[in-house]
Amino acid sequence: MAELSQILKQATGVVAARGEGVYLYDEQDRRYLDFTAGIGVTSTGHCHPRVVEAAQQQVGKLIHAQYTTVMHRPLLTLVDRLSEVLPTGLDRMFFANSGSEAIEAALRLTRQATRRPNVIVFHGGFHGRTVAAASMTTSGTKFKGGFSPLMSGVHVSPFPDPGYFGWSVEESTDFALKQLDYVLQTLSQPEETAAFFVEPVLGEGGYVPGNTRFFAGLRERADRYGIQLVLDEVQTGFGRTGKFWGEDHFDVRPDVLVTAKGLASGFPLSGIAASDELMEKAWPGSQGGTYGANAVACAAALATLDVIEDEKLVQNSADRGEELRGALASVASGHDQITDVRGLGLMIGNEFRDADGNPDGATAGAVQQEAAKRGLLLLTCGAWSQVVRFIPALVVNSEQVDEAASIWSDAV
Ligand code: PLP
Questions:
Q1: Helix (H) or strand (E) holding 128
Q2: At 44, which CATH number?
């Protein structure tokens, strides 16, 4: 019998047979509380009936029509619907299948529009695993090991991470902006810099939220030097942080918004949004792909938007997130090895450190495994895998939050 490649390391050991809401069932029909949601993808829960219905209907009508050849109605309707939720002025979209592809689309667009070669990214940022996206990723060496040379023209500047520096938010923001000026002036050069690529909340890098002054500093420098500000909302979009977009917490206007995970409840769909003016500068033929904006994925995305609105999932994310953060903070208060519980909405991380204050991925991993044995699926993140993260579907209710917190407490 064929076996899966060694390079696929599996976090939980579960073989899923079916999913329903926040629950997954394995092949022996054992039930798990799934607080991974396919890495923050299935925001409407597994197999939401309205998403299933929309996809089934679409499969019977049209599965695929390559959209630079023939347009289809689900895509046209989706563009209209997204324009209602996208930040003002970002009226043009381009669609692909994964976060990495969308990041590459944003990279191509900003380099073409500015005719500049460099990009500046931020420590702890994760933008994907394709070669360009991995070149822009700094949230762990494992994402870029062994396949050099990577893309050139990438410069890295600090993200304001108070926990890492052991400073206040103010101090870490002062430092991050000062270092950004240093990187701009001495390494990248403003007139050679096409874009800043940044996440509103570091995802794979450890669930570290940015802050308003930091993003205002990026916006101001972007405007001053004609640099494009690209916000990677792949993980933070569609209500995950308790607001529709992660950037809504920080009052920052991007030039390009990159989105994927929460967009289509698990169907592969990603996109970038930018102004007409910027999109006009894309070189014809340079953006596209055979499978982007698949008709079934677009139909699922439309149903996803309906569910988010009708079931008030953005508010639920904020409310259940607060409950969950409170419950996790209370568990942490009895355990010295959990040194921080942080995040926004239903994107919450628990940081593990050892007695010397060093990041403790071994303990985080052991607790994650204990939780899985007790029926709660979780993932780790952070450069040392020292953060255990909770990212349930946004349909999670208070009882499920309590159940997860109780299993977590036992596992810790
Ligand atoms: N950007 C961010 C912020 C992500 O969290 C991810 C994936 O986790 C990506 C980009 C890459 O997305 P994908 O894995 O779909 O290529």
A1: none
A2: 3.90.1150.10
Length, in residues, of the chain: 412
Given the DSSP bridges, would you call strands 118-122 and 31-34 parallel, antiparallel or unpaired?
unpaired
Cβ-contact 254, 222 below 8 angstroms = no
> Ligand 1 centre from 235 Cα, in Å?
7
- Taking the centre of ligand 1 as the mean of its atom positions, its distance from the CA of residue 107, in whole angstroms, is 14
The CATH code of the domain that includes 283 is: 3.40.640.10
Tally of structural domains, the chain: 2
Look at the pTM and tell me if it is higher than 0.95.
yes
What is the block-wise mean pLDDT of the chain (412 residues), using blocks of 10 residues?
72 91 97 98 98 98 94 97 96 96 98 98 97 95 88 98 93 98 97 98 98 98 98 98 98 98 98 97 89 97 98 98 98 97 98 96 97 97 97 98 98 98
Ligand 1 centroid – CA 103 distance (Å): 8
Distance, in Å, from the CA atom of 320 to the CA atom of 343, rounded to the nearest integer, reads 13
Sequence-distant (6+) residues with CB within 8 A of 171 are 162, 165
What is the position in ligand 1's atom list of the atom closest to the CA of 232? 3
Closest C-alpha residue for ligand 1 atom 1:
127
Complex-level ipTM beyond the 0.85 threshold: yes
Rounded CA-CA distance 37/390 in Å is 9
Q: Is 11 part of a structural domain of the chain? A: no
Q: What are phi and psi of 74, to 5 degrees?
A: -55, -35
Distance 100 CA to ligand 1 centre (A): 6
162 shares its domain with 237: yes
Same domain, 211 and 271: yes
Ligand 1 site residues (CB inside 6 A) read 39, 98-100, 103, 126-128, 199, 203-204, 232, 234-235, 260
